[in-house]
Amino acid sequence: MPVFTKDKYSAVLHENTHIGTTIIQVNATDLDAGSNGEVVYAFGSGVKDKIRQIFNIDSDTGEIIVKGHVDFEEQDNYDIDIQASDKGSIPFRTLKNILIQIVDTNDNPPEIEVASLSGAVSEDSRPGTTVALISITDLDSGLNAEQRRIVTRTARTKWILITLLLTSIWKCASGQFRYSVSEEVQEGTAVGNIAKDLGLDKNALKERGVRIVYGSTEPPFTVNPDDGVLYVNRKIDREEMCDRSKICVVDLKTVLQNPLEIHHVTVEILDVNDHAPSFPEKKRNLEVFESALPGARFQLQAARDADSGLLSVYQYKLSPNNFFRLEVKDRGEDRKTPSLVLEKPLDRESVKTHVLLLTAIDGGKPPRSGNMTIIVNVSDVNDNPPVFSQESYVVSLSENSPVGTTVVQVNATDLDEGSNGQVVYSFGNDVDVRARARFNLDPNTGVIVVAGPIDFEESSRYEIDVQASDKGTATLKTDKTIIINIIDLNDNVPEIEVTSFSQALPEDSKPGTTVALISVKDSDSGLNGKVMCYINQDLPFLLTPSLQNNMYSLVTKSILNREKQSQYNVLIIAKDAGEPCLSSEKVIPIVVSDVNDNSPEFTQNPYTFYITENNTPGERIFSVTAQDQDEGSNALISYFIMRDREGANMLTSFLN
């Protein structure tokens, strides 16, 4: 809250100071930031309109400026409450009293009041004959009110012009008396016996006559000319006559004739407890932030009592409560200012409003009192973070769920009020781009929906931090981890990968010879990812499982014969155990390579042929043909004649 830089502010101001003159500048500071720390100034709500017509305060600078006519004779000091308020949504206020003393200037001429005893004066009047009573007053104070007397005579007329600038008391006055009477007494109440105090009997009193001179208004007192008793002439209201002055006196002049004597009579008006204390407001709403620390003070407007002294406000009492105590500052001159002092921290979430009764009691017997109801509204500060309604959020989501599918709704509440209690949701700072591409979060409802393709094989689980934040000026946040488990669907077919060992398989390979290594995999999980691999053809091959999961060896089952079948297209089928199951196929081409396992065979055996005699040497006489079922070099045939070693056959010498 704003704090004034000085404990006391006072200023001295000359009456008749020009309008626009700066009298004093107050200053208050506020430790908060932004608009919460900007301070504006204003008169307190209890400042009367009369003061507001004379003075003005600049709301931004705190300067108090003369606005109207300042007259010492009207009022010699001003007690003004200044309020400093911040610009927060629920403003804090602090009051400070400013005392302005008015300095008198000699701006009032003396006033002469003449009370004539006769319309005309006889020319044979003896010296000392009373012509008139003259009263001189000067509204100024001090030396400005001192007076002298000058009597002048004009030559043109037979009138005497009397100009008096008297020096305080008539020199012919022979005494002064003081009486006292309570205000509000009935008309005719005796105040004192002037004749007795002057030592005059009734006969002397009748001969000389006695009367009261008071001024132009009806005197509050009158004297009985027969017995010299001073009586109350009309209703006396001390507060009307003297406001709240400590001492209230009425000055009278008692005039006796023959010879002329003037006696000053002072009647003190005693205060009676005819007014009860009253507050400017019957009800005061006080806004206090729950963050206020014990010891924080909240100045209240003082009660006013038209009575004075002990009959004015004597004490304050505060209704019993657990959070506030009352502190009263005595400024003297019947001015006691109450303040509430916070004793214990407030908690708006526990108690939003405290209703207190402040009682002002005067010192009369019996005492009179007045009450003001104080409603302390505990203003919210953002001291509660949002709280999620669940300790944990764990949900399941099927993969391939359509975009827009609701995954989960998170909910958080905040015990604060207003914007401090309004909650919005967002992903935490650590949520990766992949998760943000898959899910959307509604900031107002907390609903998380599918925003992109959900693939179990890409990620089977998402841990997403969701942040709940309030809308307070100093935002409070709470994080909660949402676990989304993805349910696998059988949406992936088995994959077959073949690693061959050779380009071709020799036909003389023994049974059990490994032809190729086959691996199968299925990106699904559980039964959806369990794969069986087999050959559904009657071929000289079989699949044998490996010790390693999902690995198979393609081996020969029986002897191969290239000459019967030189190539095989082995169809490998892989099928998962999902429901419904998915399968895939892979054809492995196997080429059987030749080995020299076949002898050449003549197309005819034996060959019988005839030759004529007398052939010419080198002449072609016959040809033979042989075939070999092998291929390549294994099928190349060379011919030669086997000769009998014992008996050389000389008939045949050459074979091509």
From TrEMBL:
Database matches in Gene3D superfamilies: Cadherins
Domain Cadherin: 5-112, 113-279, 280-388, 389-496, 497-602, 603-654
Location within or outside the cell: Cell membrane
Alphabetic keyword roster: Calcium, Cell adhesion, Cell membrane, Glycoprotein, Membrane, Repeat, Signal, Transmembrane, Transmembrane helix
Membrane-topology descriptor: Single-pass type I membrane protein
Pfam families: Cadherin (PF00028), Cadherin_2 (PF08266)
Gene Ontology molecular function: calcium ion binding
Main location: membrane
GO CC terms: plasma membrane
GO process annotations (BP): anatomical structure morphogenesis; homophilic cell adhesion via plasma membrane adhesion molecules
Entry function: Potential calcium-dependent cell-adhesion protein. May be involved in the establishment and maintenance of specific neuronal connections in the brain.
Protein name, per record: Cadherin domain-containing protein
Source organism of this protein record: Iconisemion striatum
Gene label: Nfu_g_1_004285
